[in-house]
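User: Okay, second chain of the day. Same drill as before: sequence in, structure tokens out.
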Amino acid sequence: MLGAGFVKPAGSLAGFTNPAPNGGRVDLAALVRRLGEQQVQSVLIEGGGTLASTALAAGLVDRVYFFIAPLIIGGASAPTAVDGEGVARLADAWRIRNMKVRRIGEDILVTGDIAR
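Assistant: Same drill. Structure tokens below.
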């Protein structure tokens, strides 16, 4: 996984450029292909709702980790876990299978696999 404690092999992403700039955002599919060429098999994608929705829509997500804090934020402009277009019908929602729930301090961690 990419994240805390990850040691990148020298030059593993050297020369990676965003082949199709999209408002300054990285082309995730191109990045994942490049990582696959480097034999990387697992990547932690951590960011906001826009990154989450982009990765889900591109079919790049196999497993999710949601932390739920005992806080109520609310508001029309409050940040969401998954931004983007969303789905029009519940039948079209991404389903989570093999779900596990664990308490970590005051937070709750929900993990599971995305059903395809």
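The chain is about 15% helix and 20% strand.

User: Thanks, on to the next one.
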